[in-house]
User: Fold these one by one.
Assistant:
Number 1:
Amino acid sequence: MARLLADRYGLTAYNYDYHDARGHDDRRIARRIKLGHSPDTPDLDATWVNTTPQDMAAETLAGFPVRFEWALDDLCALVSGRPIIAEGWGLRPELVAPISDSPRQMVVMVPTQEFRDRQLRELTRAATVRHGVSDPARAQRNRLERDRLVADDAVRSARRLGIRVIEVDGTRDAASVADDVADHFRPYLPSPEDRKP
């Protein structure tokens, strides 16, 4: 959605997931050292197999505020003559709402369970389990359930804060869903005459 809207309206898109996975590693390592942990990558079995989805979700949610600060640093340093649209699962309603002027400056998009199941059947990367774990099937089950719990938490938080939730069920194409998102963001999008190439 962010890329589609960026193309349509001449915006700059910020992809949280890309920067979190690639640009924040030095900060992640420094934080592990500060907390007294090894700077090495955590044991994959401990992370994905010998745990529960509930513990995984709780750890993920607890880490979002720290990672959100890193994303804010990125956004503050992003020099663009165009409006910025940011997307990614770490941009949580409870973190974005306090720094937004209006709930209309955010939308939470989540897949329905049926759409998740379809992705697992049809997208190779969605059904891929992590390499290097002793029980790939359990790691996959844990990851999928963790993701569902984290998404459910985002929906509850958004509804509590009056932020719109859009469930994506796969029955409409991306352009159609982007129309809805654009309509939601209409007050913040450039008018046609203001759009930059």
Note: The longest strand covers residues 107-111.
Number 2:
Amino acid sequence: MSNDRVVTGGGIADLEPLAQAREQKAWYWYDWANSAYTTTIGTVFFGPYFISLAENAVGGEDGRFELGGLSLPPDSLFFWLITVSTILSALILPPLGAYADRVANKKRLLATLAWTGAFFASLIFFATGDNWLLAAVGIVFGNLFFGAAGVVNDSILPLISDEDDRDRVSSRGWAFGYLGGGLLLVINLGVYLGHESLGLDEGLAARLCMLSAAAWWAGFTLIPFLKLRNHPPVDVEHVEGNALRRSFGQLAATLRDLRNYPMALTFLVAYLFFNDGIQTVIASASVFGSEELGHSQTILIATILMVQFVAFGGALLFGRLAGRFGAKRSILVGLAIWCVIVTVALFLPAGNVPFFLVLGAAIGIVLGGTQALARSYFSLLIPRGKEAEYFSFYHAMDRGTSWFGTATFGIVLAVTDSYRPAIFALIAFFVIGGLLLTRVDTERGIREAGNDVPAVI
């Protein structure tokens, strides 16, 4: 008898919904695990620490790196590293997605990629003095495997949830991630700000905080690894050859077949615009707060923490909105709020802490919600058996064009010499993304992909 069914009295009770619910709870823990890398390493500690290593290597902030004919200041080297990691991701993720769709044991693949990424992230702890190269290896490959594990994780969502349940599950996972990342960040900021009382120098405190994020990522990945089930591949293209050749063959077949899913493609283009706007706002918020509004580092740190915990509630709120009004309408509401946020930033008075905190709270509300629903909405528009491959396009195209927003921000800043019009210029990304999203016929896209149409779309 199957483990998912049990005889009760005169009939057979289907326990599959209970098994699916257990898988969903296990799946949430990966968002909890990997968000520590994003917040502690990516957002707060790595950039400043790496720049200090680079400055040590060239004798101070006025020194220069001579790399491949380029003369680079030490602080710009960090942004080149991020660029390299995004380009590598854009190239590697699609064939990885094609391979993942042919793997039944996706939880093992997820864990392997996550643990490899955590290993590289942990190398940053050993980068001291002027050893910027070891830190560079840690962040480039940490980012690469972070993105690769994200593709596999997102591809599991359609396997553990029905179409009617997809928005709720995605939103809860995203909310869980913000809660986990925020909790570790609180602990790490306590360690960093109180390093003297703990007998630590500032550099060691920063390295310990980043090491804790790598350990958090690796440790909590054990939960989905142990609790998720294997899901046999379905409807994959028949391609001859070894695993690598079959993966590229699958990728080629999907690229030829993309024209059959125009709604999925339209949404991808819309997502590229509005997600780039979101990422640029987040990346520039701290600089805007310090350089344009004159807020202290303490205020900025408090705002980052507040955004993390408000985003937890925001993701759950948008999950409820999607259950009532549909994911597409809810995302459009979120994009309208993003337009208001960048407009308010244009007029925000300098030095006014309450207004800045209110703006941060507004960002938190829509940050998790729009991203969580984008993930679940896209999952409805892609065919069964190609979840990882389509999510690899979702991640790769995002990373491959992630410089559009920052380039726009930088150009406007250079022309106007002010952060206010620079951040307001990002409204174009939300408007264009929203207009493209209105062109997506949700029901048609779901039917084209061969999925069931939810009760609320």
Note: The longest strand covers residues 5-8.
Number 3:
Amino acid sequence: MGPRIALVAGEASGDLLASHLIAALTSRQPELRCEGIGGPKMEAVGFDAWWPYDRLAVHGYVDALKRYRELSRMRRALLARLLKDPPDVFIGVDAPDFNLWLEQQLRRRGVHTVHFVSPSIWAWRGGRIKRIRAAIDHMLCLFPFEPAIYEAAGVPATYVGHPLADTFPLVPNKQEARERLHLPHAAPVFALLPGSRESEVANLAPLFIDTAKYLLSRYPDARFLVPLATRETRVIFEQAQYAADARDLPLSLLFGHAVDAMTAADVVLVASGTASLEAALLKRPMVIAYRMGDFQYRMMKRMAYLPWVGLPNILCNEGVVPEMLQDNATPEALGEALARWYDDVDARHALADRFTALHHRLRQDTAQRAADIILPLLGSRHHGSP
């Protein structure tokens, strides 16, 4: 029997990240078998998916509580299968609420455990680091400031860079993207990204539509691009557009194509999250906006450690792009902030320079660097309980 690695990825971003890692690992060790919970991109590079990753997908605290018993049964079934025939290494790809317990159980029984993508302990819930220390042998970090936090707590950690920085071009081609999307070369173009989850789109769609109305009054030839991840989120946005009597807005709804939309845009309005990092890697000026339920917002704000929520600001350690949250996110405020970016060409160029430097820092050939950590663990076992 050749070496085996078990992986668990819990959503589309983890499926993509793990697929690159599996390809890097098997290119250097062709007999390696990879199995566990994953998605179609992992399967495309030879992964044996015992369960599909979308079984793990939860959206917020309420959904997690509703599905707790189902997820707990699935996790225990996976643990029993892994203990019956232990892998050489277990890799939890993000999904910390599911993976950390599993990692701790396996590590106690001698399986090497690696976690790929640090939980945001630097942003909130820092107390989790004690649980992480008990659960994993090595943390693979996507951001350069993270390893020092883990090493101070006695957790081996390595910065491997961010995979998006490897795949995104250093110089995006705006005109080519506009041609793909059949857009005029000279018109003002704004990309509106209200999130990937249904709850996010429901909260932000009316706000983003009213912001587009505000911008259109200022730029009569403006065009608006709205990439949406699923059919469900598209329906939610269309309903909001109908309710706002905005069916005549020069607004194009796209199935996916978020990267094309941001590349083609002059300025981006984006919900906080990975899309804000994508916008930074595409060197686009942006305004970050977010709204959620008042109770959830108060709880998150009380638990937060940093003055920013957006990854571009966190990674630059400075408020380089505006963030407008909750009651501060109004159509007028967002519209004015977006217009300032559009009108100030020098500011846009200066921001692009900052984002280019960030891109270089994050571009580290992530999958190969991660493989460098994982491959030496194959064929060895812990002795006794850590």
Note: The mean pLDDT is 89.
